[in-house]
Amino acid sequence: MADISLKKLKKSYGPVDVIKGVDIEINHGEFVVFVGPSGCGKSTLLRMIAGLEDISEGELSVDGQVVNELQPKERGVAMVFQSYAIFPHMTVRENVAFGLTISKTPKAEKEAKVAEAARILQMEHLLDRRPSQLSGGQRQRVAIGRAIVRDPKVFLFDEPLSNLDAALRMDMRMEIGKLHKDLGATMIYVTHDQVEAMTLADKIVVLRDGEVQQIGAPMELYHKPANLFVAKFIGSPSMNFLEVEVTAAEKGHYVVSNAALAPISIPSEIKAKVGDKLVLGLRPQYLEPEAKEGYGVLKGKINLTERLGSETVMNLAMGDGTTLIAALPKDAIFDRGTSIELSFDPVKAHLFHPETE
Amino acid sequence: MATSSKLTSSNRAGWLFALPGFGLMVVFIILPFFFAIALSFTNQRLISPNPTEFVGMANYKSLLGVGMITLEPERDASGDIIRDDSGAPTYPKLRNFTRKNPDYPKLDGMREWTSWQSGENRTYVLARDVVFMRAVLNTLIFVLVVAPVQGGLALGLALLINQRLRGINVYRAIYFMPVVVSIVVVSLLWRFIYDGNNGLLNNILSSLTFGAFSPIDWLGNPDTALGSIIGMSIWQAVGFHMVIWLSGLQTISPTLYEAAEIEGSSKWQTFRYVTWPGLRNTAVLVLIVITMQAFALFSQIDVMTSGGPLDSTQTIVFQAVERGYGKQDISGGSTISVILFVIVLSISLIQRWLTRERR
User: What residue ranges define each of the domains in chain B, with the CATH number in brackets?
Assistant: First the structure.
């Protein structure tokens, strides 16, 4: 149970910088998710916290103590791996008890802790099986059990659900969320799946090319993405981007337009002047088929619709040749090729400088 | 496959391509195997004008026949033990019992293999073929020493070269080099190393001890000859088994090591809980391969000692060749091969059974 602080953390392999100076503060009991596309350095960062990778520069402290040079076991961390990393020749019981066996914990205490972990994870009936007799979800449960029994200061999860199928992934996701609430422990979780990030996190850290793009609560990232990259990464389906030109600017408001969009005034805090090229971001969920007073209007032809029952996802061809995705929160039938007008609330639209992608 | 041509899908073509290799295997492995079994029941000689005769188990009896006899010391008329000049009791001559003695038909033709004192009496172990018994014993000693030592050393080397270090491939190559060199060449070289007058080993030992070490004729001394051959053999093939261990090591997932490291496992604990269990199947393979190779010990003996001195380096295969071709006694050589086959087969089966996966 601990506060963790990363100060100007850097990692380089020879001349290549993989982590380029990362500052993150993690409070006791927080669930922090590192999210980003593959190769963004999120796993490397987690492994640096675990002590599996050396820290090239900067300072990592747990509970105010600098732990850069400490061995993994001295940092009080437990880790759950994507590939489970449970020992194939040991029974579930032996696997869960591994850390305690290593530290020569008395037998009675060991058994009590294993029983407790098995109870929390509802796997008492699995204790005498071998990993080869377990399903993927059960294996991951064993790996989590191994982490729990050691009562670590920090839990580290490295894409723990990536090897599971979709249905199981959702179950395990909820269980991990519940586990966090039950244990109240600090957890750091790495994923490339923004749904996991949104649902689990108290705090999301969006990473890209070894740099932090934005740190914040899930809804903060959703509603106020700091740049194009975050806007694109968070939310599903992903945000629509329209290249627009500023035709009029006043404090906090910009009137923008392009070939497919009639001029509309968007409230925004970015700095721009008349004639600047900007990117207008529209979430597919905020596009509505009914026009309203003061709303922006887009016209397009329907290319394709996907009916999901609760939602209908439309792919539209716009007048200027770009495509637009809209997600209507109901089941609706649209014919392919028909023209449609979609409107959006300017308050829910975002303006970005194009270079922030 | 949609694109398979007539050639690759034809059964006859497949057999035709397999024929040369298959034929060679039949001619040089399968046929000789059955030949050896058949010949071991005959009196066939390599070149002989006499017709071959079926002799049943006679060859096996003459090789494997063993007996035991306990003799009481000779006593004079008053019942006192007759002693020789050094005070040791004297016993009746063994050949009185083993040469045409109608009371001891089973011992006929046997010789003394070994003996020990029990109280006043002396017990003799007799064998019909003492040299073959020496050969079996030497081979067993060789296997019992080489299997664990070579396997263990190879594992140690594999662990060393499994590290990610700069230039590690150089070490891998160095350790593997003796395997590539022919055993005959290696044996010749080591004859110089073991030389009694100016050998490298004697020179090194005497310079390490500042001349206190008196040179030994390593291969000429019955006490050191077998040990010397064991040492050289271990050195020569250790690289081969190192590579097998290495391949086993590399199948162990690196995340298992990381998991162990996170859990705070020490180097030894990591070996005990992660590495060794992960090497189970490799260990079985290495053990069986070393055992089989060790039983086939021949070239070193042939080049370095020819079984001497005083039969101290006789081995089963050397005896088989010696009999079959040296003495032109093909049936005798075949019998030895069959015996060796049975020994190796049973030991391999026992090893497999002992190392089986327990649930």
Answer: 66-127 (no CATH), 131-354 (1.10.3720.10)
